[in-house]
Design goal:
With 502 residues, the protein is an alpha/beta fold. Helix content is 36%, strand content 20%. It folds into 2 domains: 180 residues, Leucine Aminopeptidase, subunit E, domain 1 (3-Layer(aba) Sandwich), CATH 3.40.220.10; 305 residues, Aminopeptidase, CATH 3.40.630. Strands 7, 8, 9, 10, 11, 14, 15, 16 and 18 form a 9-stranded mixed beta sheet that branches. Strands 1-6-5-2-4-3 form a 6-stranded mixed beta sheet, with helices on one face. The chain is elongated. Bound molecules: ligand BES and zinc ion (ZN) (2 copies). One zinc ion binds next to loops.
Length: 502
């Protein structure tokens, strides 16, 4: 979708639709609105006057224009009360508009931008939220549908979005906002694409190739550590988890090194392309969506790609162990003891707690380059759904300031997160009788998400670290207007926002 900004009068518009936001407590006084209202013999103002419902949040009303103007349709988009408006409401409205335009084959869309009557939200933030909601709302995963071409004829994809500023002085500001929102949303949608892919077309091998491909034109360096090198690095956990599968594990490394950078951040992402549970095979209903168990690693790809495209002045290292967790005659067995790259021995009490194992090696590897921060992102526990539900990521770590800043960034992008405490009372739960650690907590499974965090803490050394358990937020089973059913792309926008704040 091409997005542009240009001042326009009715005569110049030939789009399929012009979207005009309407408020419950403010009249539309934009020149373009008044001009159209005149052409329509006051139909717009009169309808709004007679039916205030039109301005309620998320209400859409379509008007057809007379043949003498090129603009085909006008869509009044209800925003509700101006002082109750926030960025998330704008995203939701824009998502709804993108869905509406797609299903009505409106491929060229114009939007009369918000103006200075906005009360508690700046013009650039409002515009950015609109573009975000629109780009994310227009996303659909359809690369595997053979009927795609026919469907496209019925539901034409949106090709262009023209933003019409209310004052010409906004143009520069809006141009910058467009650039940034396009980069971020393109990468969120890339992550959604990767996570939505079934595991037979996203094996560790193919995934590594796709990562190389997506950075082909970029300054980011990609290195794929193959099985032999993983062995040389003594990454016994990655090898152990991958043992049951026909697919060999890989460790993909990314490096973004801008000329100027004050901080170095290591991003570590869980990349289990399919989690069957291994010998502790998951029951059928828990197996359903286990292709999404690589979402942490996809987030690392999306964030580093966005940061490089935005030319952010921070050095980034990406570390992504890619494996398939399968049961077989060669699979890891319960009670086996394996050694992580830092030398610690781990008794495998449950082969389905594989994420923390591969992350043990990856986190240790991250800590050896002594970054300022390590952040890991992982679909680590189903218990995260019980703890905070599907709308809130569980965040843990060893540095309160880092955690609070991530939560704050997530509030701004509406990718909510909340801290769970890594209290020392649970530390003994992962002590093994025969090895240094075991990969499971107390037998009753209590504090499952916290136990995952406590385990990972053993592998980050003294580096400031945060762990984002996206086990509950990775996938939308219902979705909303800008986040269709399926992979959510959470928490790409949060992490980019945080990186920008450094
Ligand atoms: N990938 C799962 C976690 C998960 C489950 C994410 C459901 C999203 C939805 C992880 O590897 C796992 O199986 N965790 C176990 C841990 C347990 C064995 C301690 C779990 O959550 O049941
Ligand atoms: Zn598992
Ligand atoms: Zn898993």
């Amino acid at each position: 979708m091409k997005i542009s900004v240009k001042e326009s009068i009715v005569k110049n518009l030939n789009e399929d639709v012009l979207i005009i936001p309407v408020f419950k407590d403010t009249h539309n006084t934009e020149t373009l609105f008044l001009e159209l209202d005149n052409i329509l013999n006051k139909l717009l103002t009169q309808t709004i006057y007679e039916n205030k419902d039109i301005c309620e949040e998320y209400k859409l009303n379509l008007f057809y224009t007379p043949a003498r103007i090129k603009l085909r349709r006008i869509l009044l988009a209800g925003v509700g009360k101006i002082e109750e408006m926030d960025q998330e409401k704008i995203r939701l409205l824009a998502g709804k508009l993108a869905c509406f335009c797609t299903s009505n084959s409106m491929s060229n869309v114009a939007f009369l931008n918000f103006g200075y009557s906005l009360k508690n939200i700046a013009i650039d933030d409002a515009t950015k939220a609109f573009i975000e909601g629109f780009l994310l709302g227009a996303y659909s995963y359809d690369e595997l549908k053979t009927k795609k071409k026919e469907d496209e004829k019925k539901n034409k994809k949106i090709e262009s979005l023209l933003i019409i500023p209310q004052v010409s002085s906004d143009i520069n500001l809006i141009e910058n906002v467009i650039k940034e929102a396009e980069i971020i949303c393109r990468n969120v949608n890339l992550v959604r694409d990767l996570v939505n892919k079934p595991s037979n077309i996203l094996t560790p091998e193919i995934y590594a190739k796709l990562i190389i491909e997506s950075f082909r034109k970029s300054k980011v360096k990609v290195k794929v550590m193959e099985f032999n090198q993983i062995k040389k690095e003594k990454m016994g956990c990655i090898i152990g988890v991958g043992k049951g599968s026909e697919e060999k594990p890989k460790l993909v490394l990314l490096a973004y090194t801008p000329q100027k950078s004050k901080k170095t951040i290591a991003l570590v992402g869980k990349g289990v392309t399919f989690d069957s549970g291994g010998i502790n095979l998951k029951p059928s209903n828990y197996l359903t969506n286990m292709k999404d168990d690589m979402a942490g690693s996809a987030t690392v790809v999306g964030v580093i790609k966005a940061a490089a495209e935005l030319k952010l002045p921070v050095k980034l290292i990406g570390i992504m162990p890619l494996v398939e967790n399968m049961p077989s005659g060669s699979a890891l067995k319960t009670g086996d003891v394996i050694s992580a790259a830092n030398g610690k021995t781990i008794e495998v009490e449950n082969t389905d707690a594989e994420g923390r194992l591969i992350l043990a090696d990856a986190l240790h590897y991250a800590s050896t380059s002594k970054p300022d921060y390590i952040i890991d992102i992982a679909t680590l526990t189903g218990a995260a759904l019980v703890a905070l539900g599907s709308k809130c990521t569980s965040i843990m770590g060893n540095d309160t300031e880092l955690i609070n800043n991530l939560i704050k960034a997530g509030e701004e992008t509406h990718e909510l997160a909340w801290q769970l405490p890594l209290i020392k009372e649970y530390e003994d739960d992962i002590k093994s009788d025969i090895a240094d650690l075991k990969n499971l907590g107390a037998a009753n499974g209590e504090a499952g998400t916290i136990i995952g965090g406590i385990f990972l803490k053993h592998f980050v050394g003294d580096i400031k670290w945060a762990h984002l358990d996206i086990g509950a937020t990775v996938w939308a089973s219902k979705g909303n207007s800008y986040n269709a059913k399926g992979a959510t792309g959470v928490p790409v926008r949060m992490l980019v926002k945080w990186l920008k704040s450094l």
